Amino acid sequence: MRATYAGGFANQWGAPECIGDRFPSGRHFDVKSLIGDFSDPRMERTRRHELFELVFVALCATIAGSDGWADIERIGVRRLERLRTFQRLENGIPSHDAVGGTAVTLPRR
């Protein structure tokens, strides 16, 4: 999966495109490589979403202008079908508690 800033504001998110082929500089950006070496800090029995799904939804919602964990969930719910064109999201959008609780346990880079 590669992310890009397309430079246009007339898209379904109401913000610059968050998924595509390249950044304006021409460099590719592999989102999965950012978290590939993270171990999932959550207890296995409570995991409803893959770690990458949480990061993916949070990243797209942040680019779309979210302002906190609840906004990430709201934007994700509104754009679920669009997000599913890039990720399975079999269990839907993670709750704001799941995203926020996981985010605070990930290592800082």
Would you tell me the overall average pLDDT? Answer: 78
Q: What is the number of helices?
A: 5
- Note the beta-strand portion: under 5%
The global form is globular
Order of helices and strands: HHHHH
Helical fraction equals 25-40%
Low-confidence stretches: 1-23
Distance between the termini: 20 Å
Class inferred from helices and paired strands? mainly alpha
Number of strands: 0
The major β-sheet equals:
none
Radius of gyration using CA atoms only: 14 Å
Give your account of this protein's structure:
- With 109 residues, this protein is mainly α.
- It has a domain at 38-103.
- 37% of the residues lie in helices and 0% in strands.
- The chain has helices at 31-35, 51-63, 69-78, 80-83, 96-103.
- The longest helix has 13 residues, at 51-63.
- The chain is globular and about 30 Å long.
Layout of helices and strands:
Elements (H helix, E strand, L loop, with lengths): L30 H5 L15 H13 L5 H10 L1 H4 L12 H8 L6
Brief summary of the model shown:
This protein has helices spanning 31-35, 51-63, 69-78, 80-83, 96-103. With 109 residues, the protein is mostly helical.
Structure keywords:
109 residues; mainly alpha; 5 helices; 37% helix; globular; disordered N terminus
